[in-house]
Amino acid sequence: MEKLKVFLDSNVVFSAAYSEKGKSRSYLFFELQNLNIIKIYISNLVKFESIHNIKIKKPEKLDFLNELLSKADIIEDVDVYYEFAKNLPENDRIILSSAVYHDIDFFITGNTKDFLTFYNKKLKNTLILTPKDFLELTFEK
């Protein structure tokens, strides 16, 4: 079975690092990767945002965050113009367009403020879901 390609937005990576192991839904993505069910992808911008936010909010988790980041494949940030993403804030637009451009199966974000209208929609080949929705979809099978 081919692994699902899953792109994690910075808020999901941050949440996985911020919480204790096993106490965050976001951390389950790294467990699923350990089980060879998914392959995690992030971009350099996601890495930068995650490190920036953890340094501000919970610097003692920086080593754990770096451990998680080392388990993800980093794809190139691209700022491709997609009509559907034109009204997103710049960083969100770049992060989403990077996942879509690189043909990732799932874009996982907890950012309901900016991505609410995108949830459960497929942009090209990339389905946008919350962490909860992805986990429910994956374990329904």
Automatic annotation (TrEMBL):
Question: Per UniProt, what is one Pfam family of this protein?
Answer: PIN
Q: Which SUPFAM superfamilies match?
A: PIN domain-like
InterPro entries, per database record: PIN-like_dom_sf, PIN_dom
Q: Give every PIN domain span.
A: 6-113
Protein name, please?
A: PIN domain-containing protein
Species name for this entry? Candidatus Acidulodesulfobacterium ferriphilum
